[in-house]
Amino acid sequence: MTVLERLNEVNDVRIRPVTDPEFASFGRIVTGYDFSSMIRYMEEHTTIPENGNIYVASVPELEADPVMKQVQDRFYGELEAQAGYCNGRNTTYNGFEYHKGSEINVAVTDFMLVLGHVWEIRDNTYRVEDAQVFFVEKGTAVEMYQTTLHLSPCRVTDEGFKGIVILPRGTNTPLACGGRGEDPENVLLLQKNKWVIAHPDREPLIRQGAHAGLLGENKELCYRSGGER
Q: According to the model, what pLDDT value does residue 18 have?
């Protein structure tokens, strides 16, 4: 039994591979860039926390990799980009974020992504049941469009997950401006180039000031038989 088959056997939502045509409105598989040395760095120099997740927006060693110059010049059209990572043991939806500009995720391990569309946001709320789940195989790089709602990956093993995160420079760093303005969307602005809808039960996000607008159960994904996470 493959990992994807097992995940579909133990969950009550369908989990598709990112090669599925259904992924096309959320993003695409990125080809033409060699992320292998960045993956090796992640394997050798980063760890998975015992609990929760760790996110680092910018890692100089990752950004010094020659492929990052290609990513900035070609993928981002000569805009400055940052490379960091997200490692952890997450299994729940928790909320969603989006950016004004695409994000590249490189799967250092297998993991799942829970994704939605920004056009399904209503009055700064989003319904859990509108999201879809995709499996990303180790070594795969995916672009998530700026219209794609996402958050932390979800693990598919006891060990947890590791992923490289590439974004326009400055994303996910503290805001410098005071106040949020009158645009209703500003309620969701949490950090630079980061708009967030959190589940009310996700206390760490709420404490940071995230808007509690995710409606429905804070769904948890299984990866083992017997409903074990």
A: 98
